[in-house]
TrEMBL record:
Organism: Paenibacillus glycinis
Main localization, broad class: membrane
GO molecular function: ATP binding
Signal sequence, renumbered to the chain: none
Domain ABC transporter intervals: 180-415
Membrane topology (UniProt): Peripheral membrane protein
Name listed for the protein in its UniProt record: ATP-binding cassette domain-containing protein
Length: 438
């Protein structure tokens, strides 16, 4: 269902079924403006009527109409005099400096950090270190007293430890190696041909759901082939879990490490029936028949392949082939999953089911790198999105801010509602904001 229709159905639950629902982004924007203007107009009319009633009541009693409770009292003019509790005027010069500062700004994080004396290491503010002279011996200039018992390196480490305790900041652990790493990668298909990948550098963290989006021919699928070791760059480094995929054997690369769903799922089918094809993935695996059967049955249930098991894979529709290929790939139980256009040919129901399943895999620690033109799917389920152009990544950001900041390459829901809510990216975002405005 198009996003404008989904938003309309989610907001106008129980509306007249004969009323026309918006089909395009333009119609959705017009409907949203009419609805929001109606909400604002109703609120303004209610406030105006309440003011009229207050005025009428005051006139009947011969009193001056009072202001609405929601109206804030007028701010005092700058430089005006203050009044104490007993009515006496206080000149600005009589206000204590500490009180003036406290009123002029809110408490900062540093104020809160220094407010608790128990968090402050002894001597941290006076310049004392463990084993050094007491505070009374410290010069007023703040310089450290001479102490031959400790050398300069020990003093430096002690100062660092004191500030860590003072600011309550734990020592940062060394960063884990990324799941996927590209550094200064160049690749061309022909020796004398143009470069398909140009100086590509990026990283995918372990457990991240990373989406590569962009136009046709920009190098997205080539990048997946470099990750899987099918292609080798002529310059730069490609690393999968810290290792060069092109130098690994198939058993080492695809044994619980990497799995790839190609753009053309037919390249994965080698048997006469779907069921035999699923069992083929375990050829040579050290598993019992019972273990193989349980894993295959779980994949069949997920992909809803029960009616298709006896059919030849090439006789399936495009969406059915995509589901069968995905089920076969997931039987490898990879820690890094590469997907090239996984939603191609899928209906809305199974697309949503696929997105939820990928999120479960991702929550379980599986790193997912997905190439897709389905920006609605990427915005809803992805964690990080990167824009590919002319063989390289030109922009990368968290999924929602990525699409919210794009003027053209964004979702239908964002194009429909960004004049009111610029950060609303998915249909669910727009529905939630419409509900909040009621």
């Amino acid at each position: 269902m198009p996003s404008p229709m989904r938003i309309y159905a989610g907001v106008e639950a129980g509306a007249d079924p004969a009323a026309p629902s918006p089909l395009t982004v333009k119609e959705g924007r017009q409907w949203l403006d009419r609805r929001m203007n109606g909400v604002a107009g109703g609120a303004n009319a209610a406030i105006g009527r309440k003011r009229e009633l207050i005025g009428e009541s005051a006139a009947a009693q011969g009193k001056k109409p009072e202001s609405m409770p929601s109206e804030a009292p007028p701010a005092a003019a700058e430089g005006s005099q203050s009044v104490s509790a007993d009515g006496a005027e206080i000149l600005p010069s009589e206000v204590p400096p500490s009180a003036a500062v406290a009123e002029s700004r809110p408490a900062s994080a540093n104020d809160l950090a220094f407010a608790d004396d128990n968090r402050m290491p002894a001597g941290a503010m006076s310049g004392n270190l463990p084993g050094s002279a007491p505070a009374a011996d410290v010069p007023q200039s703040g310089a450290y007293p001479a102490n031959p018992a400790i050398n300069e390196a020990t003093a430096r480490e002690a100062r660092k430890s004191a500030w860590r305790l003072l600011l309550d900041k734990p020592v940062a652990a060394p960063a884990a190696a990324p799941a996927v790493s590209f550094k200064d990668v160049w690749f061309k298909y022909d020796k004398n041909g143009p470069d398909a990948i140009k100086d590509l550098s990026f990283e995918v963290k372990k457990g991240e759901f990373y989406c590569l989006v962009g136009g046709n021919g920009t190098g997205k699928s080539t990048t997946l082939s470099l990750m899987s070791g099918l292609l080798r760059p002529y310059r730069g480094k490609v690393r999968i879990d810290g290792r060069n995929p092109a130098a690994l054997g198939a058993d080492e690369l695809f044994a619980n490490l990497l799995a790839v769903l190609p753009q053309n799922p037919q390249t994965l089918f080698v048997k006469k029936t779907v069921e035999l094809d699923l069992h083929e993935i375990f050829d040579g695996a050290r598993l019992t028949k019972e273990q193989k059967r349980e894993k295959v049955e779980a994949a069949i249930r997920f992909a809803e392949l029960e009616p298709l098991l006896g059919m030849h894979p090439y006789d399936l529709s495009g969406g059915e082939q995509q589901r069968a290929a995905l089920a076969k790939v997931l039987l490898l139980e990879p820690s890094i999953l590469l997907l090239d256009e996984p939603t191609k040919g899928l209906d809305g129901f199974f697309k949503a089911k696929l997105g939820e399943f990928l999120q479960k895999l991702n929550a379980g620690g599986v790193t997912i790198v997905m190439v897709s033109h389905d920006i609605e799917f990427c915005a809803r389920y992805g964690e990080t999105c990167a824009m590919f152009f002319d063989g390289g990544v030109i922009a990368s950001k968290a999924a929602k801010p990525f699409f919210a900041g794009n003027g053209f390459y964004t979702t239908a829901a964002n194009r429909m509602a960004r004049h009111r809510w610029p950060d609303a990216v998915t249909a669910e975002d727009v529905i939630a904001r419409c509900d909040d405005s009621r």
